[in-house]
Amino acid sequence: MKEWWLQVGLLGVPLLAVYLHIPSPQLSPALRSWKSSGSFFTYKDLNVFYRDSSGAVGSSDVVVLLHGFPTSSYDWSKIWEGLTQRFHRVIALDFLGFGFSDKPRPHGYSIFEQATIVEGLLRHLGLRHQRINLLSHDYGDTVAQELLH
Protein backbone atom coordinates (compact mmCIF):
# COMPACT_ATOMS: atom_id res chain seq x y z
CA MET A 1 0.00 0.00 0.00
CA LYS A 2 2.99 2.30 -0.51
CA GLU A 3 1.43 3.84 -3.58
CA TRP A 4 -1.84 4.99 -1.97
CA TRP A 5 -1.29 8.44 -3.44
CA LEU A 6 -1.21 6.86 -6.92
CA GLN A 7 -4.60 5.24 -6.33
CA VAL A 8 -6.03 8.51 -5.04
CA GLY A 9 -4.63 10.32 -8.07
CA LEU A 10 -5.99 7.76 -10.52
CA LEU A 11 -9.45 8.19 -9.01
CA GLY A 12 -9.25 11.93 -8.30
CA VAL A 13 -8.07 13.21 -11.69
CA PRO A 14 -11.05 11.82 -13.68
CA LEU A 15 -13.49 13.06 -11.04
CA LEU A 16 -11.95 16.54 -11.18
CA ALA A 17 -12.14 16.51 -14.99
CA VAL A 18 -15.84 15.59 -14.89
CA TYR A 19 -16.53 18.27 -12.25
CA LEU A 20 -14.82 21.00 -14.27
CA HIS A 21 -16.96 20.20 -17.31
CA ILE A 22 -20.33 20.24 -15.57
CA PRO A 23 -22.22 23.33 -16.76
CA SER A 24 -23.44 25.88 -14.24
CA PRO A 25 -27.07 25.43 -13.20
CA GLN A 26 -29.70 27.64 -14.80
CA LEU A 27 -30.79 30.69 -12.81
CA SER A 28 -34.22 30.57 -11.22
CA PRO A 29 -36.82 32.99 -12.62
CA ALA A 30 -36.44 35.14 -9.47
CA LEU A 31 -32.66 35.40 -9.91
CA ARG A 32 -33.01 36.13 -13.63
CA SER A 33 -35.41 38.93 -12.77
CA TRP A 34 -33.06 40.29 -10.07
CA LYS A 35 -30.14 40.32 -12.49
CA SER A 36 -32.10 41.90 -15.34
CA SER A 37 -33.21 44.75 -13.08
CA GLY A 38 -29.62 45.56 -12.13
CA SER A 39 -26.55 47.01 -13.80
CA PHE A 40 -22.79 46.70 -13.71
CA PHE A 41 -20.06 49.25 -13.10
CA THR A 42 -16.36 48.76 -13.63
CA TYR A 43 -13.83 48.73 -10.82
CA LYS A 44 -10.22 48.15 -11.99
CA ASP A 45 -11.39 46.28 -15.10
CA LEU A 46 -13.73 44.12 -13.03
CA ASN A 47 -17.52 44.09 -13.35
CA VAL A 48 -19.46 44.73 -10.15
CA PHE A 49 -23.20 44.10 -10.14
CA TYR A 50 -25.55 46.52 -8.41
CA ARG A 51 -29.22 47.31 -8.21
CA ASP A 52 -30.51 50.87 -7.81
CA SER A 53 -34.20 51.65 -7.39
CA SER A 54 -36.01 54.92 -6.94
CA GLY A 55 -38.64 54.81 -4.29
CA ALA A 56 -40.52 57.06 -1.92
CA VAL A 57 -41.63 60.40 -3.29
CA GLY A 58 -40.85 63.26 -0.92
CA SER A 59 -37.95 61.49 0.72
CA SER A 60 -34.33 62.34 -0.01
CA ASP A 61 -32.95 59.42 2.01
CA VAL A 62 -30.65 56.93 0.33
CA VAL A 63 -29.93 53.49 1.75
CA VAL A 64 -27.07 51.22 0.68
CA LEU A 65 -27.46 47.55 1.49
CA LEU A 66 -24.37 45.44 2.23
CA HIS A 67 -24.90 41.68 2.09
CA GLY A 68 -23.43 38.88 4.15
CA PHE A 69 -21.17 35.90 3.52
CA PRO A 70 -21.38 33.84 1.34
CA THR A 71 -24.39 35.37 -0.36
CA SER A 72 -25.24 38.35 -2.56
CA SER A 73 -27.45 41.40 -2.96
CA TYR A 74 -30.33 38.98 -3.48
CA ASP A 75 -30.36 38.68 0.34
CA TRP A 76 -32.42 41.86 0.29
CA SER A 77 -35.01 40.79 -2.30
CA LYS A 78 -37.83 40.04 0.13
CA ILE A 79 -37.64 43.49 1.78
CA TRP A 80 -36.72 45.49 -1.35
CA GLU A 81 -40.23 46.74 -2.02
CA GLY A 82 -40.73 47.81 1.59
CA LEU A 83 -37.45 49.72 1.54
CA THR A 84 -38.44 51.54 -1.65
CA GLN A 85 -41.58 52.72 0.13
CA ARG A 86 -39.44 54.31 2.84
CA PHE A 87 -36.32 55.55 1.01
CA HIS A 88 -35.88 57.75 -2.05
CA ARG A 89 -33.18 55.39 -3.39
CA VAL A 90 -32.36 51.82 -2.47
CA ILE A 91 -28.99 50.52 -3.65
CA ALA A 92 -27.40 47.10 -3.23
CA LEU A 93 -24.30 45.58 -4.78
CA ASP A 94 -22.71 42.19 -5.01
CA PHE A 95 -19.28 42.43 -3.43
CA LEU A 96 -16.40 41.37 -5.64
CA GLY A 97 -16.30 37.56 -5.64
CA PHE A 98 -20.01 37.23 -4.83
CA GLY A 99 -23.29 36.99 -6.73
CA PHE A 100 -23.20 38.39 -10.27
CA SER A 101 -19.98 40.36 -9.74
CA ASP A 102 -16.70 39.10 -11.18
CA LYS A 103 -14.77 36.47 -9.25
CA PRO A 104 -11.14 36.95 -10.26
CA ARG A 105 -8.66 34.21 -9.36
CA PRO A 106 -6.11 34.50 -8.04
CA HIS A 107 -7.04 37.67 -6.18
CA GLY A 108 -6.23 39.10 -2.76
CA TYR A 109 -9.77 39.84 -1.57
CA SER A 110 -10.01 42.20 1.41
CA ILE A 111 -12.55 44.13 3.45
CA PHE A 112 -10.67 47.32 2.56
CA GLU A 113 -11.10 46.66 -1.15
CA GLN A 114 -14.80 45.89 -0.73
CA ALA A 115 -15.24 49.23 1.08
CA THR A 116 -13.34 50.99 -1.72
CA ILE A 117 -15.67 49.35 -4.26
CA VAL A 118 -18.73 50.64 -2.35
CA GLU A 119 -17.20 54.14 -2.40
CA GLY A 120 -16.55 53.72 -6.14
CA LEU A 121 -20.17 52.75 -6.73
CA LEU A 122 -21.39 55.82 -4.84
CA ARG A 123 -19.11 58.02 -6.96
CA HIS A 124 -20.36 56.27 -10.10
CA LEU A 125 -23.95 57.03 -9.06
CA GLY A 126 -23.16 60.67 -8.25
CA LEU A 127 -23.74 60.19 -4.53
CA ARG A 128 -20.25 60.95 -3.25
CA HIS A 129 -21.36 63.94 -1.15
CA GLN A 130 -24.84 62.63 -0.33
CA ARG A 131 -25.79 61.51 3.16
CA ILE A 132 -26.07 57.71 3.03
CA ASN A 133 -27.80 55.24 5.34
CA LEU A 134 -26.17 51.82 5.59
CA LEU A 135 -28.02 48.59 6.23
CA SER A 136 -25.76 45.58 6.57
CA HIS A 137 -25.43 42.13 8.03
CA ASP A 138 -22.68 39.59 8.60
CA TYR A 139 -19.75 40.24 6.20
CA GLY A 140 -21.38 43.53 5.22
CA ASP A 141 -21.13 44.70 8.85
CA THR A 142 -17.34 44.62 8.62
CA VAL A 143 -17.38 46.50 5.32
CA ALA A 144 -19.76 49.04 6.87
CA GLN A 145 -17.37 49.54 9.80
CA GLU A 146 -14.54 50.24 7.37
CA LEU A 147 -16.72 52.73 5.48
CA LEU A 148 -17.59 54.50 8.74
CA HIS A 149 -13.92 54.68 9.68
Automatic annotation (TrEMBL):
<comment type="similarity">
    <text>Belongs to the AB hydrolase superfamily.</text>
</comment>
<dbReference type="GO" id="GO:0047372">
    <property type="term" value="F:monoacylglycerol lipase activity"/>
</dbReference>
<dbReference type="Pfam" id="PF00561">
    <property type="entry name" value="Abhydrolase_1"/>
</dbReference>
<protein>
    <submittedName>
        <fullName>MEST protein</fullName>
    </submittedName>
</protein>
<dbReference type="GO" id="GO:0016020">
    <property type="term" value="C:membrane"/>
</dbReference>
<dbReference type="GO" id="GO:0046464">
    <property type="term" value="P:acylglycerol catabolic process"/>
</dbReference>
<dbReference type="InterPro" id="IPR000073">
    <property type="entry name" value="AB_hydrolase_1"/>
</dbReference>
<dbReference type="InterPro" id="IPR000639">
    <property type="entry name" value="Epox_hydrolase-like"/>
</dbReference>
<keyword id="KW-0732">Signal</keyword>
<feature type="signal peptide">
    <location>
        <begin position="1"/>
        <end position="20"/>
    </location>
</feature>
<dbReference type="InterPro" id="IPR029058">
    <property type="entry name" value="AB_hydrolase_fold"/>
</dbReference>
<feature type="domain" description="AB hydrolase-1">
    <location>
        <begin position="62"/>
        <end position="140"/>
    </location>
</feature>
<dbReference type="InterPro" id="IPR050266">
    <property type="entry name" value="AB_hydrolase_sf"/>
</dbReference>
